[in-house]
């Protein structure tokens, strides 16, 4: 029988999650990629020796993993996390900062490619949940802010370090943060570069919930199962709608893309295509739902 929550909500599954490890098949070095039969993809930054700092290779692999999860019709929700209990992600790997970007020899020029990843995560029509244990700092803090939901362990620490180490994110890292925590708090976070604990992060609405470290994955899976029981199209349209307000024309395009997809599925949309293929005038007005 399906598991029932206290509020009467039926979860999608009540069995323990069996993870399938897709890391080797994808030849990933810096990340791990797991999927579950329930419909969850888990993407783990796997550089614990540097608190899961990312280098260009890490970003390339994260982008591939997000594309895999987005295109996999069996997947309904994506978890982003860091390996181990000490860090979600500590941002760009400072030992690899070259001229004008990060350089690990895997790309022809130094890159700031985490920005492309942020956009990809925003555009992904599936909910993305940050599961945060330990440090979420610098570009790592921005990655969790770009996720749709953030669940934190009680050992989590949040903050920006850019002005301390000679970097800044003037994109989502600034404006999206200000929308979440407000103008004054965003300026405090960037201008003072201090760390905030999980309770403080919850108070400033940076995270959705805080749980004991030992409970973090279980609670995240519970949130995933509730999401999996809901309408994927409704969630995709809502994500696009919430983004649209902030993302300007690109955001409206996202929402418009969902509208066009639904129109393609309608009798009216199909009639236009069929009429063209069958070389006849379209009979749009004969379709009741077209009025
Ligand atoms: C996280 C901190 C506070 C933890 O301190 P703690 O507990 O004292 O641990 P440490 O001993 O410092 O760390 C353990 C080991 O991990 C290494 N390490 C940690 N973070 C990094 C890092 N970011 N890069 C490389 N190595 C890291 C330590 O060196 C140590 O190694 P060992 O054991 O060998 O000594 C503390 O570690 C800390 O402050 N870390 C640095 C945080 C930071 O400044 N991050 C970078 C911030 N900037 C960005 O992320 C910018 C990138 C970005 O997102 C961006 C934005 C806009 C446009 C483009 C970009 C882009 O860059 O792509």
UniProtKB/TrEMBL annotation:
Pfam families: ECH_1. PROSITE patterns: ENOYL_COA_HYDRATASE. NCBIfam families: menB (TIGR01929), PRK07396.1 (NF005637). This is 1,4-dihydroxy-2-naphthoyl-CoA synthase. One of its GO terms (biological process) is menaquinone biosynthetic process. It catalyses: 2-succinylbenzoyl-CoA + H(+) = 1,4-dihydroxy-2-naphthoyl-CoA + H2O. InterPro entries: ClpP/crotonase-like_dom_sf (IPR029045), DHNA-CoA_synthase_MenB (IPR010198), Enoyl-CoA_hyd/isom_CS (IPR018376), Enoyl-CoA_hydra/iso (IPR001753), Enoyl-CoA_hydra_C (IPR014748). Keywords: Lyase. One of its GO terms (molecular function) is 1,4-dihydroxy-2-naphthoyl-CoA synthase activity. Belongs to the enoyl-CoA hydratase/isomerase family. The keyword RNA-binding does not apply. Its EC number is 4.1.3.36.
């Amino acid at each position: 029988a399906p598991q029932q929550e206290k509020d009467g909500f039926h979860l999608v599954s009540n069995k323990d999650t069996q993870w399938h490890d897709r890391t080797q098949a994808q030849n990933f070095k810096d990340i791990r990629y797991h999927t579950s039969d329930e419909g969850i993809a888990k993407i783990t930054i796997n550089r614990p020796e540097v608190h899961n700092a990312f280098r260009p290779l890490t970003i390339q692999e994260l982008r591939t993993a997000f594309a895999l999860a987005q295109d996999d019709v069996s997947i309904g929700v994506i978890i982003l996390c860091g390996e181990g209990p000490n860090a979600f992600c500590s941002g760009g790997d400072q030992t690899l900062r070259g001229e004008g970007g990060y350089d690990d020899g895997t790309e022809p020029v130094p890159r700031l490619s985490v920005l492309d990843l942020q956009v990809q995560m925003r555009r992904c029509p599936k909910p993305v949940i940050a599961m945060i244990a330990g440090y979420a700092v610098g570009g790592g803090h921005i990655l969790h802010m770009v996720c749709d939901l953030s669940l934190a362990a009680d050992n989590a620490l949040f903050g920006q370090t850019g002005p301390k180490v000679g970097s800044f994110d003037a994109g989502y890292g600034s404006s999206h943060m200000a929308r979440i925590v407000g103008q004054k708090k965003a300026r405090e976070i960037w201008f003072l570069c201090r760390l905030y604990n999980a309770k403080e992060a919850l108070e400033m609405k940076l995270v959705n919930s805080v749980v004991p470290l030992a409970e973090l994955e279980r609670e995240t899976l519970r949130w995933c199962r509730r999401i999996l029981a809901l309408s994927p199209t409704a969630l995709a349209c809502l994500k696009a709608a919430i983004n649209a307000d902030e993302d300007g024309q690109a955001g409206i395009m996202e929402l418009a893309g969902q509208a066009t997809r639904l129109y393609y599925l309608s009798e009216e949309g199909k009639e236009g295509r069929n009429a063209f293929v069958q070389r006849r005038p379209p009979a749009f007005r004969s379709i009741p739902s077209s009025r």
